[in-house]
Amino acid sequence: MQKRIIYGIDIARGSPRARELPRYALAILKDGEVFHQSMLRRQKIFNMIQREKPEIIAVDNIFELAADRSELLSLMEKLPEGVKLVQVTGGLHPEPLVRLARKYGFSFDPENPNDEAEACARLADLGVGHEVSLFEDITKIKVSRARSLGRGGWSQNRYRRKVHGAVLQRSREIENALKDLSREKGIRFETVNVKGFGGYVRSEFTVYAKRGEIPIHPMASNDSQVSVRSVERDKIRYVPLKPKNPRRKFTIVGIDPGTTVGIAILSLDGELLYLKSSRGIAPDEVVKLIAEYGKPAVVASDVTPMPSSVEKIRRSFNAVPASPGIEVSAEEKIALGRTFGYSNDHERDALTAALLTYRSYKNIFSRIEKKAPQNADLELIKFYVISGASIEAAIEKARASGEPEKPKPREHAEKPEDRAVDESLLKMRETVQRQSEQIQNLQEYLEELKKELISKDRKISKLESRLNSFKKEAYSEIRKSKEINIRDETIESLKKEVSHRNKTVKELRRRSNKLRKIQKMEVRGEGTAVKVIAAFTKESIAETKEKYGLKTGDVVFLENPSGGGTATAQILVEAGIRAVLIPEDISHAAEETFFKGDVPVLKNIPLERAEDFAMAEPETLKAAIADWEKEADARRHKAKEDELQSLFDEYRSERRRGLV
């Protein structure tokens, strides 16, 4: 049998907020025996926690372990399942550790970290303190792609379908596991799926249960990955530990009945002892659960009149009934429960019933605390007041039950004593009568439960036989339907892909036929190949050069000749092209550059186009080039004449200046 292990931790040197890592004193309590270790770093302690998995980690202040809430959250996420972090000094209003130790019968040296660590461990072993809860009873599960789809290529659709299909398959596996969990334990969950090509891009599951209750763990494969995380609370919640062998306390119980039963239990001090909802829980199990946390003084519902199922539970405890008397809006319920936190509507409604009841008694409880003697049992007095007694009568009853009078010799008996004995007997008779009524109520309730159980067993047997037959029929139909849907989606996707490819093939075939025609014409000498440049820019020229090349003797067609200048034209001149064909005029600078480079610029030459190629009639092209060369010769001759005339005029001007 594994021993109960409790870790007590106290800071020995430094602080989590300092630059230097702090050191800690550790006291390990194993079934009464204490083992000390000193000056340990936090990481080493957490490595030991991973190995030994203690039941409790006890501290007097949780922020001795972490500098802030964010760091504390990170530490608690690393704790093994089932390990509790407990602040032994209390929750929102801590009590000094020295005072607590004295209260439970032992002392220690507050200057010695080892002693403080041991005191924390021993107090936690006694059930003293509050468990630190940073996470809601809600778990988020996310299934997503394990890698990016990238920019893609020819096989992009097939790759995308493969990845999305893997996410879809993993999501269905998790959904089936959660459905089984829901049937077995009544755990509720919600699903959000984002569809993609061939499957899911991602799936998100919100499960209303603790992470340790869900048999799904983080994982990753080549195509999909699964992340599992608990939902963080807005505020730190402190849940009181259940003390060892506790004296049965009086409680206020709120119940929300139905298929899913919500239960909230408060102490008479307004402290939340229990809050949870359970699906399909039997009434006798509800009674047992409530009894574990004490004796209900009040059983409450958030609706008026009280439902019969809640009334039966109330009668089993002979508790005082309570309900708000008016309808409580959802906004009020949310505001009431926000401080404590809840996981669903059933827990919220049960908590509302308990809190409204506590509020109705809060003022009278304050008066009791003021009027009661110093050492009086306040809880017992409150219980008597709830049961209908006045504050004074309740104080007397509590004193009588807590401090019974010692018997006195008969010779000293006087009339006041006789009256006290009579009153004591009367109280005893009232107690016996009340207990007899309670026993009778419990017996009646037990008989009702037995009858209901027999009836339900019969009904369950019939429904199970019908359900089995339905399952067999429905299972085959569901499988067929799913397979058909999957195949229909696949067929539709393939049809779209085939249609797209047919269009692409048709277009490529048309281009191929055109190019083949141009090639034949060129081979037979029926045409001259012309390379088409989309725009008269450096980028378009470079693109054409990269795709098809530009060599000496090529003829090019500038589809959009506007915009180009001297530098752009010079690129074509240096390439050694034979001629430039244009549909409209080009800039004067570009034309001048082509003229100087002896490259003919021909306008409106008829072409047979095919994408980036064209074909010109050889004789037409040859004649146009010849005409351009004639014009170019004339232009050059004229330029030489102008140059000679300019020299002659300059010479004459200089002679005149010399004569003068």
From TrEMBL:
Please list where the region (Disordered) is annotated.
Answer: 397-419
Q: Please give the coiled-coil regions recorded for this protein.
A: 425-511
Q: Which UniProt keywords apply?
A: Coiled coil
Q: Does the keyword Coiled coil apply?
A: yes
In terms of domain of life, where is this protein from? Answer: Archaea
Q: Which InterPro entries match?
A: DUF460
Q: What is this protein called?
A: DUF460 domain-containing protein
